[in-house]
Amino acid sequence: MTASLTFYTNPMSRGQIVRWMLEEVGAPYDQVLLDFSSGMKDAAYLAINPMGKVPAIKHGEHVVTECAAICAYLADAFPEAGLAPAPSERADYYRWLFFAAGPLEQALVNTSLGFEVPAEKTGMAGYGNFALTVDVLELAVSKYDYVAGPKFSAADVYVGSQIVWGTRFGTLPKRPAFEAYGARVTARPAYIRANEIDGALIAQAQQNKA
User: Fold this and answer.
1) Domain boundary residue among 60, 82, 104?
2) Per-residue confidence at 153, pLDDT binned at 50, 70, 90?
3) How far apart are the C-alpha atoms of 52 and 39, rounded to whole Å?
């Protein structure tokens, strides 16, 4: 019997990353929509994610939070989707997935908040400085068509989301390598489906507020 899969999200959140991954996997799932002001802070959801944030998934009895972890988990849980390289070929897969979840995420958030690492303190910051992090990201998406090689993987869902969002809203510069990579990943049918689903949910929420 196939384990049930439940997706906890808000369409105006990083849940969009996991929605894309779920559409790539192609497994059926139930969705639970939560609002920021109350639903994510209710005791029932805090039992799922004590951080009180989305996204999260529950697969059978297993709960997974954090977007990069969810992407990696789903790739392994549904191997028929072919979204993880063979174990012997996962060096770049792990490297860039966790680079995006660690140094890149930290650099983007800190820069968006107006924090700049002092030149004499870059050794203390996990990402060094913003410019270095962006240059390394550019290298990551320039070597092959996808970050782990010539084949799309779950790492591209996470890295791609960071690049698409960042170049769209100005937290990343619009370098040719980013725009070319972004065009490749957003052309995927699963991305288009996920974007349409969340777009419709956002439009409905805005209509309800009007």
Assistant:
1) 82
2) very high
3) 9
